[in-house]
Write a structure and sequence with these properties.
The protein is of the alpha/beta class. The protein has a domain of 84 residues: TIM Barrel (Alpha-Beta Barrel).
Amino acid sequence: MIFGTGYSSLGYLHRFPVNTLKIDRSFVGRIGEAAENIEIVRTIVSLAENMGMEVVAEGVETLSQLSQLRKLNCQYGQGYLFSRPVDAESVTAWISRRPHWQADLFPTALNEQYVPAKPAP
């Protein structure tokens, strides 16, 4: 469920078998612009944690966004910072050729790991 867009509602969290919340790119893109923007993201991450759900940040495009999401304990991210859209076969081949891809992308964060979102089936 993408939280924050369209017809998403807190009521759906109890009606459907949801195990992952996805934070819409419109929230992620505004991190850093004003204090209330990060508080909205913090609240969504906290809600997911309290309900035993995973959380994915959509539209991660900058290292600053990634850093702030890490500080909020956001578990997964997807966006152009990691890669343009590719099919599952291409990403599997890329990961197998580049086992240290995180160090290549983020050389200053060698001891930290951030897991990109799982590809959609």
